Amino acid sequence: MFLGGYLGSCAAQLATFAACTACQCASREVLRHSARVAWSVLFFLAMIAAWVLRDFATPLLQKIPWIVKGVSQDDMDKWFGQQAVYRVSMGNFLFFACMSLAMVGVKYRGDKRDRYLHHGHPLLKLGMWLLFTMLPFFFPNDVLNIYSWAARIGSGIFLIIQMIILLDFVQCWNDSWVAAGEDDERWLYGLMGLTCTAYTGTLTLAGLMYYWFKPAGAGSCSLNIALITLTLVLVAGFSGLSLARQGSIFPASAVALYAAYLCFSALQSEPRDYACNGLAHRLTAASGGTLAVGMLFTLASVVYAAFRAGSNTALFTLEGSEAAPETAAERQALLAAEEGGGTSAGLDGVPDVAEATRQAVTGEAGRTPQQQQDAAALAPVSYNYSFFHLIFALASMYIAMLMTGWGSEVQAKDRIDIGWTSVWVKTGAQWATALLYMWTLLAPALFPDRDFS
């Protein structure tokens, strides 16, 4: 019996050691591949923390005197849930905003801020994140009220950035395939197939919206019908304009599908007890697990949007932070470093990055390790670190609005982004996207002397 217990204890210790080693190796490999992935995971954990605290932190917050002070007894549970979300959101906003300021001016991989802050010391950054997350729980309610209004503005900026990147992405996609189609017509056929698929999806989604959001016996549902119909009118308008101005409608088809999705998302955000929200009535029987999966999908999409926006620095530049290569050697060094894994110079002792960078910069062989490290330090960073963290700061504001119905309504458990404010925010985002796209088509004709490339 003693021997069995001893062997069991040893096995447990070995299993624990192996698990810890595996976790350390996995986290190290993540950092070696891309620091952006590590920051995205940290941001996702912040959203999960905000979600959990919103639904279960009431007993804890009730014991904090400066939070309870001056609060009425009406609907206390929901108010505390909202406060928990705001405080987690504010902590992460401050954390990423400070990181953004600290990264201003980082142009080359040899910068110590790249090595020690952006890529290195994960445990230190985790401790800083925890500290910043807890800090707002010591702030008075007035500070959080100011932050809640600031978060509305920051969330709007985050949505606008998403729109700009979407439009740039589909236009670049179209230009790339059209250029490839000059040598191989199959690229043009592929573009035509994607265009037809996007428009088919748009019309299918519109039909489903007419079916789901005007249920039988619910009355005229004039608001829902108007929003769906206006979506189709916008799609027809900018599709015709795109065909007239560009001779190509693939970008218009992609924007059309996105506009239809925004309309659907707006309508499904209508209150669950609204008679015209037929989809909500169909989902009332859904289990808590199903709703939780839906929430996780929504949160993951926010992380992906922030990741894509933060990584795209060709459209957005913070003065003094853009790391555009100035020479051909530096441009070659950047490409070589990205192919080698995208870590900072000398971090984790990655020899392939240093080797690729050395060959690109010098074109010679046989350099010493110190010369290799010096050459790697000259490689420019592949994206704007300051802008990347700024996007996550704005996204931290957005999750506060997402989980509190844009500050007007506190969400029920297992639900986010429900309420009339959410409906009109998404509707406004749809209109803004359509108008912005039409502006990109009209601006070159209205201002022929300006370069819009």
Automatic annotation (TrEMBL):
Alphabetized UniProt keyword annotations: Membrane, Transmembrane, Transmembrane helix
Membrane topology summary: Multi-pass membrane protein
Localization annotation: Membrane
Organism domain of life: Eukaryota
Native organism taxonomy: Eukaryota, Viridiplantae, Chlorophyta, core chlorophytes, Chlorophyceae
GO cellular component, one term: membrane
Transmembrane segments: 35-53, 84-103, 123-139, 146-167, 187-213, 225-243, 249-267, 288-307, 387-407, 428-447
The protein's name in its UniProt record: Serine incorporator
InterPro entries assigned: TDE1/TMS (IPR005016)
Family recorded in the similarity comment: Belongs to the TDE1 family.
